[in-house]
Amino acid sequence: TVLAVVKLQHSWSQIFTGETITLRCEIQGGEGKVWKYEWTAPNTNSPPTSSEYRISRVSVSHSGDYRCRGSSDYLLTGWSDAFRLTVSYNPRATLTAGTTIIPVGGSVTLTCSVQSSDGWKYEWFRRTQRTSEVQIRDQQNRDIRVSQGGNYSCRGTRGNPVYYTDISDDVTIEKTFSNKVVVKQQPNWPQIFRGETITLTCEVQEGGETTEWEYKWRGPRTPTQWTHNNDVTFRVSESSSGDYMCKSRRRDDSYSSTEWSEAFTLSGSILNKPTVTLQPSWTQIYSGETVTVRCEIQGGEGAQWTYEWRAAKLNTPPTSNEYRIIRATESDSGGYSCRGRRDYFFSEWSDIITLTVSSKPKPTLSADNTTLPVGGSVTLTCSVNPSSSSSGWIYFWYRDNILLNFSSSDGQLSVSQEGLYKCKGKRGNPAYYTHASQEVQINKTSEFGFSNHK
């Protein structure tokens, strides 16, 4: 049996517009004879009479069924089975990268492919911002390894004459520098409060000082594009808290960069309102006493603050957290408040604490009985009024103007000797003394039941 068969010269599963192909008519079982050939084909009025059907620059309109038959002397084969030719539009190569970042001292693999077709060799291209597109020599494989940064592209080639696919989209490959980068904060305070203004700086280390760099940031309050500025300045708020990282690249090579820095964590603390306290903690002060007014900022203990004061009599207010009033006078009475300042950042003003300076007090001395019972005693009570706001006193006692070797904080003294008694109060450091109280005469009861009056 003699059969005609149509075969494609190339074993490609897909044919694309613009390629040159050859179909061949083979007469199986008819070897040794001289054959003439007939073809049926789409899109042609004059098919060839040879065993080969060559189509230069094939188009989609060439798709269809191709058949052939042969004749030799009086022998005529039947028509071959149809060979279905499918022509697809010009393909675009696809470039994929295992990773787009070349590690320090390493390389990455690039892969070029043309749909699901076969028979291709590949051309590779690279360009940078300083060089136009250049073909990479001696590279025709589907996979290549590269160790330089740049924009890479590829295309497929096959056939004779050579057929080219459309060139792939670019893939940008970045090379990693060994230089380390760090994020630093200015001012370099261990604690940052919401409302303060800070600057974060991206620093390239290990010899980066002689290179012109540009910088990229990751963080809540940073630009997303490359910039020539290596710092960002902003007011700290709740929305600015988070992790900040940066990396750098040379200005003349946008395809090489450092690794991302380690994360710098910014957390803006909430600053409490300052409080004013008195030391000693007496709100009732007497003229001549020494008292210290202190400004305390809870939560801001580690910060270097300068303090501002609002006070009744401060012509030149101190900048420290303490204001010491030595030998207070009544003109020191009034409200005291403070706030903390660090650079251009201010805390709130504290609530006002009111200091009252009164004239030097005279204690009140009283006795539960001015006559000593036989063999008994009486109780003397010394107090500085008003006792509710006047505290911290220690009381001293005198009998007939001689200081007794006794003091008490409760202001009471039990006596069993007659005499003329008086008392004084003392408190503070340095010690502050009241005036002496009025005198109280304590008499002794005679053995006949009468008082002795001296």
From TrEMBL:
InterPro entries: Ig-like_dom (IPR007110), Ig-like_dom_sf (IPR036179), Ig-like_fold (IPR013783), Ig_Fc_receptor (IPR050488), Ig_sub (IPR003599), Ig_sub2 (IPR003598). Keywords: Disulfide bond, Signal. One of its GO terms (molecular function) is transmembrane signaling receptor activity. GO terms for cellular component: external side of plasma membrane. PROSITE patterns: IG_LIKE. It holds the Pfam family Ig_3. This is Ig-like domain-containing protein. The lineage of its organism: Eukaryota, Metazoa, Chordata, Craniata, Vertebrata.
